[in-house]
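Thread: "does anyone have the structure for this chain?"

Original post by V.I.:
We have the sequence but no experimental structure in hand. Need at least a predicted one for the grant figures.
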Amino acid sequence: MYPILFEIGPIKLHMYGLMIAIGFLTILYFMQRDARKIGVDPNQVSEMAFWVLVLGVAATRVLHIIMYPETYSSPLQWVAIWNGGLVFQGAIPAAVIYAYIALKRRGIPFLAMADVVMPWVPLAQAFGRVGCFFNGCCYGIRSDQLPWGLQFPPGSPPAHSHQINYGALPDGWSYPIHPTQIYAVLALTTICAVLLLMRAGWNPFTGFTFPLYFAFTGAYRFVVEIYRGDGNPTELGLGLISNQQVFSLLSIVLGLGLFFFLWQRSKRQELPASNDAARP
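Reply from O.Q.:
Generated one for you, tokens below.
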């Protein structure tokens, strides 16, 4: 666990922020590369991506403040995103609304651009989860019997939580826990690979990666939430499942519903063209 990579006087390089920056720059390269293939200016991609990042980070922070108000003792802490505290679902509405408006103004088809962007988004999220791992947040429940259970050092969020709930270990470290951040990294990189393979080999209709992204990420998040140990609220889930799992179920339903809607629409659009081709 290395929440701060290095310090030079008052300047600190936080691993969480660094991983977000690396993830953003990595997928920006691939999105610009793929945008060229459909005739979109890469400079337009970088401009829109910058504002998506700004709006997305702001929205994720706002949702975290709403969901976890007890973790903020003063308004000054609202802007300290380098310490963690982002709820990714908050970025989705802000990013989609901005992207739709920005693309429409530039005359770029939204769904065509979605197939350029969406396969790479899980990769950016995976970098963010690496940041969570170094930061010690988004940790898992105890897993004393698992060979891959990890212990976090004194002062980390898991160690602090275990000291309160179970009593501290002699060395002050946490008990072994599920490495849920690593689970998320593996799942998200897999989703990235699957969407890219589907785009290259199947590609049933323009924009299909957009709804499948929501379905796949919702499914992964629902499962990983089972092993989370950082006390996610359960009000929306009536105490049975976490709020994040409720969001995940909504994401799955939205993704599958939108997929079949767009699929049927693409079939209807193909019918006139096939009928015209059949005329003598």
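V.I.: this helps a lot. The mean pLDDT is 90.
O.Q.: and The chain has two domains: 4-141+178-265, 145-176.
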